[in-house]
Prior knowledge:
By secondary structure, this protein is mostly helical. It has helices at 3-40, 65-75, 86-102, 143-151, 154-164, 168-191, 193-199, 204-213, 217-220, 222-235, 247-250, 260-285, 310-336, 344-373; strands at residues 51-53, 56-58, 113-114, 132-133, 294-295, 298-301, 304-307. Helix 10 runs antiparallel to helix 14.
Amino acid sequence: MELSTLVLWTVVKIVFVLAVAVGAFAPVLVWAERRQSAMIQDRVGPHRAGIKIFGRYVTLGGLLHPLADAVKMIWKEDFVPPKADRFLHAIAPIVALIPAVASFAVIPFADTLYLDYWNQWIPREGFVSGPRVPMQVADLNVGILFLFAIAGTGVVGAAVAGYASDNKFSLLGGLRAASQMVSYEVVLGLTLVGAFMVYGTLQLDDMVRWQANHVWGIFVQPLGFVLFFTAAIAETKRVPFDLPEGESEIVGGYFTEYSGMKFGMFFMGEFIEVVVLAAITTTIFLGGWDVPFLYRSGFDFFGYQVPLVHWAVIAIQVAVFLVKLVVLMWLQLQIRWTLPRFRYDQLMSLCWKLLLPLSLVNILGTGFVLLLVR
């Protein structure tokens, strides 16, 4: 493949990821959470932001509120406490946001695209020659390790924000965030060891292909799925694991002293992490872009075939991948509004006394079953 073509497709994939994660899903999650909280608390909720089109005031059910919030944050005063470390105070939101966005680099959202057969039918089996484009920004052979490495830097942003703000509540929130995220990262890694043993690879696209050829990961690693999803919610610091913020206890936690777009970066980073969690869970446990009965050649329902051209197959895979993301994000929203906040000692006890031992049991059980099968 020519360098210009490679660069072009890389840019296209980056724009797609940013448009989906940052431009679409994160703002809609903000809107959905506000609408849901308004419903629960019996109040109006977001509905006023709108634009005039042909003389009529259009609000789109409050969907324009995230856009209005972004504009407001851009123009709000960037307040820095007098005794704060100005450099660290400024860099912390960037360190917290960038890893969340960068995590999408290794998430595959469709099967390989064969450029020479874009508008042609491709056989279900066999080698396909010609230039190919992996449907992920970076096709790394250590994809899941890249996720752990890049996501682990997010804790630095929270810890630095708490330290740099010259506020005891911010410092307490930063300490909470650091200890919570470091603890649950251990569990997060161990819960996926069983999946690595089954799939036999660290590449996320190969994990999806294994599930497409066998069965989705949630059926071969049900305990691993529950443990991973629980630990991942704790890693994103969402309710009921939002102790680093703890509005009723420590004002606003590590971003108490942040305003304007710096606060907006922390705020947006949390919602992007929700999308990242849904994407990783979908890829490892829900078959990723896999659609039952859909192959490279089209649909095959027990011998009844519906042939499709290559671009149509890729489009269906992308659409189904996004639908799975929406379902998991909706599930996280329901958890957000149905569970109370833990005490901090309960939070850490859950990690070290329950999730960690269960993750080790899951590894031992998976190894035992693989020995019997093989």
